[in-house]
């Protein structure tokens, strides 16, 4: 989680700390205890990347008596039908950073579900590329619903269906169009539920790779944590949802990346959707601590 994401959430003023036990510190993280819209919640900043995200999620599940995880933040956008400032709640997420990096003429590994061939991006075209090719490998997924010590190999991890149903009724959430009095988006931002997202340990600001991801996987959001949070929750049998505000075009823009211009706006719109989602959840779907 980047600083603007956390700042936007607390700037809304909806988080009310518990007066007696406002936080618990564990392994360098502060778990903030309180309420949002009258419902008990626990907030923690996981940090950037897959390991941080999985670790913070597992700590949350182990330490507190919670009902599920709402993960949120900003992300890059690979989908030409979406715009900066829009918010996406993916229905499925994939981890696209688990690679088998192979020689140019190597055979793909059995658990690879897609391939990126560097020679396809030679300029000028033609000839081999010593970087070879990458095979996208499936995760080894252990879960309470599976056989002990026998991992499944899914490509996509599905968001909890009934939480997606709740999210589908959030279209009335008003999203901001302007970052400040002089910097506004050309179109009013929207919330879209049920698209696909990709996660890796890469901050992506490259047009060719972003276009490859969209063409190959059909993903919209590109971030560095969501699939790890979702995978950890599903492994433990907990409901989970991911909410991502689109802050930039992941390299397909002209000029510099726009995350510095619109990151705070995307974070604020994300926070608004998060608050709307918490407000819409039935009382038995929030923390009991």
UniProtKB/TrEMBL annotation:
Residues 20-278 form the Nucleoside phosphorylase domain. Gene3D superfamilies: Nucleoside phosphorylase domain (3.40.50.1580). One of its GO terms (molecular function) is catalytic activity. InterPro entries: Nucleoside_phosphorylase_d, Nucleoside_phosphorylase_sf. It comes from the Eukaryota. One of its GO terms (biological process) is nucleoside metabolic process. It holds the Pfam family PNP_UDP_1. PANTHER family: PHOSPHORYLASE SUPERFAMILY PROTEIN, PURINE NUCLEOSIDE PHOSPHORYLASE. This is Nucleoside phosphorylase domain-containing protein. It comes from Solanum bulbocastanum (Wild potato).
């Amino acid at each position: 989680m980047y600083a603007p994401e956390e700042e936007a959430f607390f700037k809304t003023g909806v988080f009310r700390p518990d007066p007696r036990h406002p936080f618990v510190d564990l392994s360098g993280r502060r778990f903030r205890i309180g309420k949002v819209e009258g419902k008990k919640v626990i907030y923690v900043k996981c940090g950037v990347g897959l390991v941080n995200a999985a670790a913070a999620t597992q700590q949350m599940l182990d330490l507190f008596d919670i009902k599920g995880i709402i993960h949120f933040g900003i992300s890059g956008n690979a989908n030409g039908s979406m715009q900066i400032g829009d918010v996406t709640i993916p229905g499925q997420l994939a981890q696209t950073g688990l690679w088998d990096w192979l020689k140019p003429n190597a055979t793909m590994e059995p658990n690879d579900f897609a391939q990126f061939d560097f020679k396809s991006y030679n300029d000028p075209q033609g000839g081999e590329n010593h970087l070879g090719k990458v095979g996208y490998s499936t995760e080894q997924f252990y879960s309470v619903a599976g056989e002990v010590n026998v991992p499944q190999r899914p490509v996509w991890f599905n968001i909890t269906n009934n939480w997606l149903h709740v999210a589908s009724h959030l279209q009335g959430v008003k999203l901001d169009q302007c970052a400040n009095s002089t910097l506004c988006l050309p179109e009013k931002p929207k919330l879209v539920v049920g698209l696909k997202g990709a996660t890796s340990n890469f901050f992506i600001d490259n047009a060719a790779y972003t276009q490859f991801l969209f063409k190959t996987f059909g993903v919209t959001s590109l971030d560095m944590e969501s699939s790890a949070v979702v995978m950890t929750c599903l492994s433990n049998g907990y409901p989970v949802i991911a909410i991502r505000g689109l802050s930039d075009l992941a390299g397909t823009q002209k000029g510099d990346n726009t995350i510095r211009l619109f990151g705070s706006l995307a974070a604020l719109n994300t926070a608004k959707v998060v608050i709307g989602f918490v407000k819409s959840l039935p009382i038995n779907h929030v923390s009991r601590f």
